[in-house]
Amino acid sequence: MTPMEQFKRECTAFFDELNAAEQRPLVFGEGPADHPVLMLIGEAPGEQEALQGRPFVGKAGKNLDAFLETLGLKREEIYLSNVVKVRPSKLSPAGRVVNRPPSKEEKALFLPWLMREIAIVRPDAIVTLGNVALQAFIDDVVGNRHGRWSQAVIHATPEPAFTLPLFALYHPASILYNGSLKSTYANDLQTLAHTLSVRTNGENDI
Question: Which of 26, 32, 82, 189 matches a 20 to 30 Å C-alpha distance to 117?
Answer without folding.
Answer: 189
